[in-house]
Amino acid sequence: MSFNITSSNITVQKTWNPITANTDIVLIAGSSSNNVGSVILDFGNFPGKSDTFVDVTGLSGITSNSVVASWISPSSTADHSSDEHMLETLEVYARNITPGIGFRIYGINTSQLNGPKGRGTRIYGKWNVSWQWF
Known about the structure:
By secondary structure, this protein is mostly beta strands. It is 4% helix and 47% strand. It has a three-stranded antiparallel sheet with strand order 1-2-3, with no helix packed on it. It has a three-stranded antiparallel sheet with strand order 4-9-6, with no helix packed on it.
């Protein structure tokens, strides 16, 4: 299913993900948008941690009404293969827009985190994350 949102030239697609057995919602901007980029989300050295964030700055045109999308980019880093980027229990969220400056991307391990003394499943290393704002 996909549909256009008013005249803003943004398409929202709802797709079935056979790997996670979930329905994914994907924002796709029209070709006129140049507000795209990528960053490295770093969970640190092994054994890593359950969550982290990275700030995206230098976006003078971003406003409090902007919409930001982020996603894991399946390309290799020094720590992880492109396949690991597609299969890891990692979700990313873009939030906390600061008008004229940028926003923050959070990475969260969605695996169960109920080990003793907070020693549940953790993610380590660097991951490629792409973003776009409208």
